[in-house]
Amino acid sequence: MKWSLIFFFILNYIFAAIDNQSWSSLNFKIDAPFSTKLNIEQSLRFEDNLSQFKQTFTEISISYKINDLMRIDIPYRYSIYKNKIKNRISIGSSIKLNKKKIGTKYRLKFQNIKESDKPIEITFRNKFTISYKVKKKIEPFIAYEIFNPYGQMMDGIDETRISLGSQIKINKKRYIKFYYIHKKEDLLKAKNNSLYILGLDYSLSF
Questions:
Q1: Radius of gyration for the alpha carbons in the chain, expressed in angstroms and rounded
Q2: Is 145 within 8 Å of 123 (Cβ atoms)?
Q3: I need a labelling partner for 9 at 20 to 30 A (CA). Which of 73, 150, 156, 180 fits?
């Protein structure tokens, strides 16, 4: 456990040193009664090649497994930035199909973001992921996600994310996920922004 955490923070530093942003998270996954799960995530993000703090957030989510294919999630996120605080509540559903070594997953999320003295931001998110189990412990993936502001729906895409990464199983209760994201934001504005992100997630199950 000690060396895993040291490895986690060293990689976070290396990633941020070579790219625009660095995202890292610790996840605690807890099995609960009635086919539900509780997930607690603590995340830290840097920008400008680790020179600037971007945000930290704590997210608590409850998920319910409807059947072997479908799951419903309700996450709440409390985010702290340099000069502001945001609260986000979401509800989403996902469908996952596994065929031998190939996995496909579609997720639809409806999120509501509130910042003091500003209108509520409502966004629909659609994400499609394909994964392939190279070995029992290694599962690379590729994903594409679009963000549609409320009122625009499919006519207006404000943000896109293309992700490439891999999940590595350390043992039955520990996982590490490495990923790279090409993020394009503010696409509905005159001037948009393109970001490159390297990230690392460390998960513990109970």
A1: 17
A2: no
A3: 73
Average pLDDT over the chain reads: 90
Pairing of strands 193-205, 21-32: parallel
Q: Where are the beta strands (DSSP E) in 82-137?
A: 85-99, 102-115, 121-132
Position with higher pLDDT, 91 vs 172: 91
Token pair of 87 as six digits: 């609260």
Which helix (H) or strand (E) element contains residue 150? none
Using a 10 angstrom Cβ sphere, with 0-12 exposed, 13-18 middle and 19 or more buried, the burial of residue 120 is exposed
Cβ neighbours around 31 below 10 Å, total: 10
Give CA–CA dist 29/15, Å, rounded: 25
C-alpha angle 24-168-142 in degrees, rounded to nearest 5: 75
CA trace torsion 46, 60, 141, 15 (10° rounding): 20
**Do you know the residue count of the chain?**
206
Q: What is the pLDDT of residue 8?
A: 54
**Is residue 19 scored above 60 in pLDDT?**
no
Contact 184, 192 (CB under 8 A): yes
Q: Determine how many CB atoms are found less than 10 A away from the CB of residue 21.
A: 21
> Model's pTM, two decimal places?
0.87
